[in-house]
Write a structure and sequence with these properties.
single chain, 482 residues, Rossmann fold, three-stranded antiparallel β-sheet, alpha/beta, elongated, six-stranded mixed β-sheet, 13% strand
């Protein structure tokens, strides 16, 4: 569960009104949450500014549907396989709220000073009039999300009788004995429920009145609260039949159901990894392309359970693992220097990912026991496709000749970049390779070593060079591969 910080701990600008009278004098207008979001969304659209920062790959598909739903004032469900960015997308909607909004200071809910809804606030507003104290809440404090789990209770979402309030002398019939749950506490804000089908059906029923009549019922109390909120939910398609389902009356009360998807092309897949991965070493563009192709190949494989999907976290974790492998290799070889150039990943660093990532993929029954073998095959294929895309048509006879003249070229995690370069010497066509792979005109030793190892691996995969694995961990490229 994620709840934004307590509004009282966030200082607001000093020039904002602090009483109801001052608020009225300032000309402030009260808008509902959905009106607020719609107005701010339209303003960003007119200005041509980003509306959902950090969301990749949805510009022409998901986002137009989402904008239409928000402009219509609909509560909505985002439906899609795991790792498609549903939660990330939901969180960006917070940016469409006003930065600061007024609330009744000291009230249990974020009630607008013009429109108190709880008995205590209504009473205070009548007693104090224009002297009613006003506080200001930042938009980040107007958002909460709850991961729907089977043990989630009505009390968590809606509320329950607070025994401490009863002990203070209030009677059980007093509505002020209610301790409000997350949904009413997000009055005038956004409430998100992740994995909604995992919520027990009897708990889903508790949300029916919130979506339609906008009131809450707690243990026999019928407390009419004119709740003002935007309710969002996420769900996986298979959840409708495997782990649970969204009950039909609740589905009917959501104004929209929007389908999400994985990146539709290779460039978007790469852009997503670039944005999200936290890398401890340089991951060259050609290796980033390998990982993007690998992720897409796993998604399309018949051996993988397509209903489960392959999360974007798969490619992000792969990129981070490859970068970590490069850092480890460079450190063990004495190539790291806090003030020097960062380590650069090589294609050999990729070979480690299949063992660590297999747990992120659900395989069909006929693939069980062969997970690593299947992933290794798809990874080799992705390397070969990237090699053809980047180096196809380049004259690489100089590399083949240079390898054939000696005893082969040794590489691997125990071979520093300088040693790899020394074995090969000056090779015709290297400058073209570096350019095709996106390296600078004057690359460092680690850049050149990464380019050379990728070139050799591609020549091996296209059967122009042999490849042997030695007991000491080295990999040797050489021979004609026949």
């Amino acid at each position: 569960m994620t709840i934004s910080p307590d509004p009282s701990t966030t200082p607001w600008p000093e020039n904002l009104p602090t009483t109801l009278g001052a608020l009225r004098a300032s000309g402030h207008l009260h808008r509902t949450v959905k009106q607020e979001i719609s107005a701010n969304l339209l303003e960003l659209m007119r200005a041509g500014k980003p509306r959902f920062p950090g969301v990749v790959g949805f510009d022409d598909s998901v986002l137009p549907d989402l904008e239409r739903s928000l402009l219509a004032g609909h509560d909505l469900v985002l439906l899609g396989e795991r790792g498609q960015g549903k939660t990330r997308l939901i969180r960006t909607i917070v940016g469409l709220l006003d930065e600061w909004t007024p609330v009744i200071s000291g009230a249990e809910l974020n009630e607008h000073p013009y429109d108190p809804i709880t008995p205590a606030s209504i009473r205070r507003a009548a007693e104090l009039g224009d002297e009613l104290p006003v506080a200001w809440v930042h938009r980040e404090s107007r958002y909460a999300e709850k991961l729907a789990t089977p043990d989630t209770s009505v009390g968590d979402l809606i509320g329950d009788v607070d025994p401490m309030k009863v002990a203070e002398g209030r009677t059980l019939g007093d509505p002020e004995t209610i301790h409000f749950g997350l949904v009413p506490r997000m009055h005038r804000g956004i409430m998100a429920v992740n994995e909604l089908p995992d919520l027990a059906e009897r708990i889903q029923v508790a949300l029916l009145n919130v979506l339609e009549e906008r009131d809450v019922q707690v243990r026999g109390y019928v407390l009419r609260l004119d709740l003002d909120l935007l309710l969002l939910a996420s769900a996986n398609p298979e959840d409708y039949t495997n782990r649970g389902r969204i009950i039909t009356p609740l589905k009917d009360r959501f104004g929209a159901e929007i389908r999400t998807h994985y990146p539709v092309d290779l460039e978007l897949e790469m852009a997503l990894v670039r944005q999200e991965a936290q890398l401890v070493a340089v991951l060259p563009e050609h290796l980033l392309e390998v990982l993007a192709r690998f992720t897409r190949a796993v998604r399309e494989s018949n051996a993988v359970d397509q209903r489960s999907g392959v999360s974007a976290r798969f490619s992000i974790a792969a990129a981070e693992t490859v970068a970590a492998s490069a850092l480890r290799r460079a450190t063990l070889n004495g190539e790291t220097d806090p003030d020097g150039a960062p380590p650069v990943a090589r294609v050999g660093d990729i070979e480690t990912i299949t063992g660590t990532l297999r747990g992120k993929v659900e395989f069909e029954a006929d693939g069980e026991g062969r997970e690593v073998e299947l992933l290794d095959h798809l990874l080799r294929r992705s390397v070969a496709e990237t090699w053809r895309n980047r180096l196809g048509g380049v004259d690489l006879t100089g590399f083949v000749a240079a390898v054939a003249e000696g005893e082969g070229i040794s590489t691997g995690e125990n071979v520093p970049s300088a040693d790899l370069l020394a074995q090969l010497g000056t090779v015709p066509g290297l400058s073209v390779v570096l350019e095709r792979l996106g390296f600078d005109e004057v690359p460092g030793p680690a850049d050149a070593a990464s380019a050379i190892e990728f070139t050799l691996e591609g020549l091996h995969l296209t059967r122009r060079l042999a490849k042997d694995f030695l007991d000491d961990g080295r990999t040797v490229y050489g021979g004609d591969g026949e």
